[in-house]
Amino acid sequence: MIRLVFIGFGTVARGTLQILRDRAEFLRTTYGFEAMVVGVATRRGSVQAAAGLDLTALLACDSLEQYPDMSGIVRGASIPNIVESGDYDALIEVSATDLSTGEPAITSCRAALERGKGVITANKGPVALAFRELSDLARNNGAFFGYEGTVMGGTPALRLAREALAGCQITAVRGILNGTTNYMLTQMEAGQSYADALIEAQRLGYAEADPRGDVDGHDAAGKVAILANVVLGAELKLSDVETSGIRGISAADMEMARAAGERWKLIGSAVRNVKDGTIRATVRAERLPLSDPLAGVGGVSNAITYQTDLMGAITLIGAGAGGAQTGFAILSDLLEMHRDAGR
Amino acid sequence: MIRLVFIGFGTVARGTLQILRDRAEFLRTTYGFEAMVVGVATRRGSVQAAAGLDLTALLACDSLEQYPDMSGIVRGASIPNIVESGDYDALIEVSATDLSTGEPAITSCRAALERGKGVITANKGPVALAFRELSDLARNNGAFFGYEGTVMGGTPALRLAREALAGCQITAVRGILNGTTNYMLTQMEAGQSYADALIEAQRLGYAEADPRGDVDGHDAAGKVAILANVVLGAELKLSDVETSGIRGISAADMEMARAAGERWKLIGSAVRNVKDGTIRATVRAERLPLSDPLAGVGGVSNAITYQTDLMGAITLIGAGAGGAQTGFAILSDLLEMHRDAGR
């Protein structure tokens, strides 16, 4: 029985909790995996229960204070208090991403790993900004560190590179890493203006009220930093990623690409220079020929092409976000942690 | 040190041997993996050496009888003799596929697994025709059974489904599973006739002199049977796969698809009926809209789309064949066997 503490109670937390509740029987019989949620904390409050929270009651709450008063319930502990003193096996860090500081997630991950607790996160901050420190901490403390959900939601892009391509050397990574801008570009290709495509993306909940993180390429840059550090073994800072977005693309640009049999895509890439081993990382709009598998990726889908020495190009296409999808990424990390523990 | 016996000395065997030789240092330092080839056998002869064959000398041979006489070399043992009495840890079954009988590969795999030896194969026969028996044998004898190279060459399609998508339920599999026909269809789209596209594919070595296995869909059907049995847990026989090919496709058919914004692809699929759990498996030419990620897969590339409950559609695109690529699949199975042994 793995005891979990969640930091964050948003879409990803709920997606994960729902999977853990609905698949409990399947996970137990198929993988011998059993989990219990002993605490959930946000900046606005927390609820803990050593015997486990009731997931159905929890999922019925809009905020944690609505969780019913039952015996054994403890409220009001702060995030650092729970992370540093709580009795749990794995911390599920799914608070909102802050790509400027990575906080408070980095501090939580660090504290849990220092205690030898497992850490699983879908928060790009810790992995884009402090991957080396945190993975060293995990190794030195014999703790599990999982971060599959930070890139392409639940589509197992990092696991593909780490496990399924083990034995290959990956020399470059290129991808469509932001679903919002890919949706907008798909709409612009169909004739919408940039402004209308943005309004549509906001209406559908793909883009936030302040869309700069998406349209200026910052979200994609965070994922490029993660891919460069995790897959290519770089030690890039986010500021090392040369980043631009899709704001400059006009109707005339779209038309020129169409006439040439090409498509505009916002491409994040990290490429190892074979001569000196340095990694160049960029996010920028590029025109792709239709023969490129990334050109066919429309709407909010994401995709990554790994360039490998033995296998040539391998492309993975799938959902890039969503509570259930990213919840699956958390689950897949939990199952890996469970497998490792059984060795 | 894992001791290997190879059955077969063709493109895949050579691709694997070359990787084992060229990456020995990388594999040892990165994964603690060391292997030695103690025997290679074909129907025409064999060469064995308890202390290990010299891979450079072996790769310089066109046939095994050219392997130099050194002390400790034993020649002339038959395949069954080596498989049943040889001293080795894993059998690498890479003889030519026979989809009618699966032999002699099935007999070799069975004999090795019964002795508790690991078996790794890129031969579709044993996995398309005897998957259940062989995987039961492996489990009951605590032996490793790897078959990643049987579908999509080295592109890790089976590993993606088995490992990276663990925790998801896969409800359907659809793919472009035969590179030869995909190459021909790509050429026909560009205006070539079926006959010319076939000659071109034969000239380039993609199609064999007798092209029926490819153009009539039998090769793809073998892979559909493997996917249905391995990924969907079916117990399909090859004859359960409703199979047709690309022979009937005319220039007029190509033009009609083009005018409708669609593309002809030879699609292999296996779909679980949600009501009664039965699996329907087919291979047939289909017209795909350009919005389908499989529509963008050109030339000899292969691709598979897994339909999953939690993650929606996940598509993997990559090389479908080749000695180095399939050799990588063998290596990835060897690394998994090595990881398992370390648990």
Question: How is this structure best described in words?
Answer:
The structure is a homodimer of 343-residue chains. The first copy, chain A, is an alpha/beta fold and 343 residues long. The radius of gyration of chain A is 21 Å and the shape is globular. Chain A is built from 13 helices and 13 strands. Helix content of chain A is 39%, strand content 22%. In chain A, helix 5 links the parallel strand 5 (90-93) and strand 6. The interface between A and B is large, with 42 and 42 residues.
Quaternary status:
homodimer
Q: Largest contact between protein chains?
A: A-B, 42 and 42 residues
**What's the total helix number of chain A?**
13
What integer is the average pLDDT of chain A? 94
User: Would you tell me the structural class of the helices and strands of chain A?
Assistant: alpha/beta
Order of helices and strands of chain A: EHHEEHEHEHEHEHEHHHHEHEEEEH
Q: Nearest-angstrom radius of gyration of chain A? A: 21 Å
Uncertain segments of chain A are none
| Largest sheet descriptor of chain A | 7 strands, mixed
